[in-house]
Amino acid sequence: MTAQLTLTRQDLRRLAITRQHLTKQKPPAMLDVIRDLGCVQLDPIRAVERTHLLVLWSRLGKFDKTELKRLRWEEKALFEYWAHAASMVLTEEFPLFSWGMRQRRNDPARAARYQKWFDEHPGIIDLKDHILDRLRHEGPLFSREIETEDDLRYESRWSSGRFVGFILDYLWSNGEILTVERVGNQRKWGLAEHFWPEWTPQEEWTARQACCFAVQKAIRALGAATVKQIKAHYTRGMYPEITAVLRQLVKEEILMPVKVGSLTDDYYLHADDLPLLHQLQNGAWQPHTTFLSPFDNLICDRDRTEALWDFFFRIEIYVPAAKREYGYYVLPILHGDKLIGRIDPKMDRKTHTLHIHNVYAEPGAPKNKKTVREIGQAATSLATFLGAKQIEWGNVPEGWAALKQVG
Length: 407
Description:
Blueprint: E1 5-7, H1 9-19, H2 30-37, E2 40-41, H3 51-60, H4 65-74, E3 78-82, E4 86-90, H5 94-106, H6 108-120, H7 123-138, E5 141-142, H8 143-146, H9 163-174, E6 177-183, E7 186-191, H10 207-222, E8 224-225, H11 227-231, H12 242-251, E9 255-260, E10 267-270, H13 274-284, E11 289-291, H14 302-309, E12 331-335, E13 338-348, E14 353-361, H15 369-386, E15 390-395
Parallel strand pairs: 1-9, 14-15
Antiparallel strand pairs: 2-4, 3-4, 5-7, 6-7, 8-10, 9-10, 11-12, 12-13, 13-14
């Protein structure tokens, strides 16, 4: 029997960073980057820039946003649906997400929750039919074109509290409607059946097929992963029969159980990534310095980030300003295979100024000229991408003072 492979934490960090195109190596085309990530999370906050644009900037630098629009709305190579959060996902992987849509439609617990709402508010069913009828006869509509002043409302911390939004989310989760265009942060909704390009794969997968595909996709995006990490990534919480699937994939030698340093959990590595791992161990590593969106695929699993990088990271958006430790929308600094600090930025689009209110260095972060220069280059790249004409620096840690000369 072949001895079990052991990776260092550095090996795994470098493999994950390379698989996610965060090295100095020239990245592939935008769609190939998204293929390897599996999904790119969407979020409305624009303190710096929308997270999906930051995720792509971290990998592609200043890219052509019209190319992304073309992929989304003209070629329809991407669509919006649930992955490890609301995300851009690949139309070519529709059978996987179609399975997820069926699961949500047929989930008894979910059905009971919605039925409770329907029972308490009888008009919702009529509203649902009304929305579908309008989309069928009028074509795609913004939610504001559907809403009326006399729409019923409900208490909600996270949304407008209008039942129109509630029903739109319900129909979207079911796979009956999709976002077919965005203007700023406004979504235009249309019937899903009218969105799909002719080439969309339509086969219906079983739970085992869906899990088998998603497990491999998650593991390759993460470099190597534990069962818990797989479940938290890509199609978060949607891994039926994962124990049996992992056993079968190991038996077929598609996956390899590996150990990672002193970490006690079992990790799985995809056999297709073994040559890349060996290349990185033999000197092919190409370190790069950039900033990461707080929702970046590399760090969206906070527990994994802490285990592999010794980097504790939490979003403080909902923390009162006076109680924040770092800031409202903080971007970690990825330097090679380490997370060496974080910046607290805000983009002022009226004055074309990127304000970096605070810069924080992790204990032991390098303070040499090369590191500071590369952080400054990342800041300049971000400012250029955002259309900023200047960078205003606030507090900078000792040893990184030269950053104030950037911008």
